Amino acid sequence: MTRDAIKDLVLEIIEDIDEDADFETLQADKPLRDQLDLDSMDFLDIVMELRKRHKLQIPEEDYPELATLASCVNYLEPLLADA
Amino acid sequence: MENQLPRIVITGVGLAAPNADNLKTYREKLLAGISEISELNLRYFGNAPAGLCNFDETKYRKKKENKRGTRAGCLGVYCANEALADADLSIDHYKRSRIGVYVGLTEHGTVETENEVYNISQYDYNVDYWTHHHNPRTVLNNPAGEITMNLGITGPHYAIGAACAAGNASLIQGVQMMRLGEVDMALAGGISESTGSFGIFASFQAQGALGSADDPRNACRPFDLSRDGIVVSEGACIYVLERLDSALARGAKIYAEIVGYGMNSDARDYVLPFHERQAECMELAMERADLKPEDIDIINTHATGTKQGDIEECKAIRAVFGEAPDTYINNTKSIIGHAMGAAGVLELAGNLPAFEDNLVHPTINCNDLDPACKLPNIVFDKPVQLESVNTILNNSFGMVGINSVIIVKKYN
């Protein structure tokens, strides 16, 4: 999966959680939680959706890697290389 | 003694019923006997008559919150906000820490658990796919808690579990907490999301107690010889309760005063009701209200359309009200189905406008009255106009032998 496709995947999952989420001004290197209406339970939803869609088992110690859109892409790129 | 306690009044009503999303429309449809029971397709089970609510689910909170929470929470948040608006009451009128939220539930968590088991069945029952939302969605205080989160209420919130007597029971809890001075205002009522559970339908079916008909609007037939069971409905109704003096001080519209209540237990069977305890429960409520049977203008019956349940309640009413020729009787479930934990409060709400229009709304779907259910003054098909309506007695009974009765009086 390309970096762009991974970005789209993450945004699609966030949109599923909150269809009112506004990505217009979203800055890729700033924490998603500071810019969108997301809390810790929503991040667990992101983890669950990645598990359901791509059988990814993300260990709890890696959750901070999902903090920003850019860090999501960096972290998921090798995991989704064959997806 | 009872008269020395603070007097508690209903000053706002918010509701979602299977035929209306506000009291005015609801009353109009009850008077006209308009049922909107429809056919629902349930996972594993198939089709069954059911009462489903149409209301503006995103009027008071975002779609995201509805996804996060439960259907019961969604219904509750809508009704609590509607009740406050109806009461013309800002949430800041009372200290938020002095507001209590008491929600009656027949059951909670069944829907969420069934859904989650189905979800993991799609992943070979691997529990890694079990949602982290399961616990906060299924704790029993969930619906009441969702109301407090939505409105920023920091007083107590909890659920009253009393099977299908729960709606009345939560009103009673609200009255008691107000009288004890624990809170200054209460949001009290009942909620049911039971139509989301195939298991509830299947269990009634297995018990031979699920209502049926070619036209789902005819499936709930209390007192009719052909009745064959319950029609499961979702729904909710939340009341604003205030002390009379506080309500008068702010010039509130007063729907009714809660003047009496009773609760007791059959102590004998898991599902079969028992007329003697039901009669005692009505007598207890009247004693507290300092009223006699002949003082009661309307009885809203609990009758759900089951063979034995309807007969037991009629026996109880006959025993208590045999000498009360001017007491009129109706049944709201015939029109809206059985809204479980919301039944008592929704049915009371449907009758409250009688204090203004002096009408008794009808019971529908009874074309062949069971002689065992024969009572004087059951109102069928068309509303009855009375000279005046000053008191309503509301029955609500539940499984495992729990009975509840509320009496409200017109405030003059």
Layout: helices, strands, pairs:
The complex is a heterodimer of chains A (83) and B (412).
Chain A: H1 3-17, H2 32-35, H3 40-54, H4 69-79
Helix pairs in contact in A: 1-3, 1-4
Chain B: E1 8-16, H1 23-32, E2 38-42, E3 46-51, H2 63-68, H3 71-86, E4 99-105, H4 110-121, H5 134-138, H6 142-151, E5 157-161, H7 166-179, E6 185-192, H8 198-206, E7 232-233, E8 235-243, H9 244-249, E9 256-265, H10 275-289, E10 298-300, H11 307-321, E11 328-330, H12 333-336, H13 343-351, H14 354-357, E12 359-360, E13 384-385, E14 391-398, E15 402-409
Parallel strand pairs in B: 3-7, 4-5, 4-6, 10-11, 10-14
Antiparallel strand pairs in B: 1-8, 1-9, 2-3, 6-8, 9-15, 12-13, 14-15
What do these coordinates show?
- Helix content of chain A is 54%, strand content 0%.
- Chain A is mainly alpha-helical.
- In chain A, α1 (3-17) packs across α3.
- The longest helix of chain A has 15 residues, at 3-17.
- Chain A starts with a helix and ends with a helix.
- In chain B, the strands form three sheets. In chain B, strands 5-4-6-8-1-9-15-14-10-11 form a ten-stranded mixed sheet, with helices on both faces.
- Chain B has two domains: 8-249, 3-Layer(aba) Sandwich (Peroxisomal Thiolase, Chain A, domain 1), CATH 3.40.47.10; 261-409, Peroxisomal Thiolase, Chain A, domain 1 (3-Layer(aba) Sandwich), CATH 3.40.47.10.
- Chain B starts with 7 loop residues before the first strand and ends with a strand.
- Chain B has 14 helices and 15 strands.
- With 412 residues, chain B is an alpha/beta fold.
- The model of chain B has no long low-confidence stretch (mean pLDDT 97).
- Chains A and B meet through α3 of A and α2 of B.
